[in-house]
């Protein structure tokens, strides 16, 4: 009976020790004040084909080891920004469903940027339904910008 209690005690103390060590290591990254930018790679389908979805660019401002501003924009492969015209064919909405989905993805860019200011970590930001490719581009570009901001 005594050995069972001792085993539980040792397991509990070990668990708390590991948690304390991980917590202490997690907050050690320092960010240098300034403005930084990250650009994702061009998105391709899992089968390797070009989906024509382009790339994303994250711009962050760091002050006192925190992200104070963030913007996220997405671009077509030719460099044209995806804006209120994205999803239209020759200037008109030929397919309302396609246009609405495209615009949902465009609007998600601001939400992703705002969430990064709040959390400070792109890994903590969940994908928004209908904007999963944007999420992947955002996470990649944000990590590049944060790597550039890490104080040496």
Automatic annotation (TrEMBL):
Q: Where is the signal peptide?
A: 1-26
MF terms from GO for this chain are: FMN binding
Which InterPro entries does this entry report, sorted A to Z? FMN-bd (IPR007329)
Record-annotated FMN-binding domain positions: 54-149
Give GO cellular component annotations, separated by semicolons.
membrane
> Which superkingdom does the taxonomy of this entry point to?
Bacteria
Name the Gene3D superfamilies for this protein: 3.90.1010.20
Q: Which UniProt keywords apply?
A: Signal
Family annotation (SMART domains): FMN_bind
Please report the name of this protein according to its UniProt entry: FMN-binding domain-containing protein
Organism listed in the record: Catonella morbi ATCC 51271
């Amino acid at each position: 009976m005594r050995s069972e209690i001792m085993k539980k005690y040792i397991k509990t103390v070990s668990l708390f020790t590991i948690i304390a060590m991980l917590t202490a290591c997690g907050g050690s990254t320092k960010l240098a004040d300034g403005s930084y930018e990250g650009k994702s790679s061009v998105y391709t389908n899992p089968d390797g084909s070009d989906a024509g979805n382009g790339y994303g660019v994250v711009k962050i401002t760091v002050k006192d080891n925190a992200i104070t501003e963030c913007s996220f924009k997405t671009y077509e492969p030719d460099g044209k920004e995806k804006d209120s015209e994205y999803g239209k064919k020759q200037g008109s909405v030929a397919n309302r469903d396609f246009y609405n989905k495209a615009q949902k993805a465009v609007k998600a860019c601001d939400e992703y940027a705002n969430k990064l200011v709040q959390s400070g970590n792109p890994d903590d930001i969940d994908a928004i339904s209908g904007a999963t490719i944007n999420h992947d581009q955002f996470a990649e570009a944000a990590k590049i910008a944060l790597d550039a901001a890490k104080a040496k």
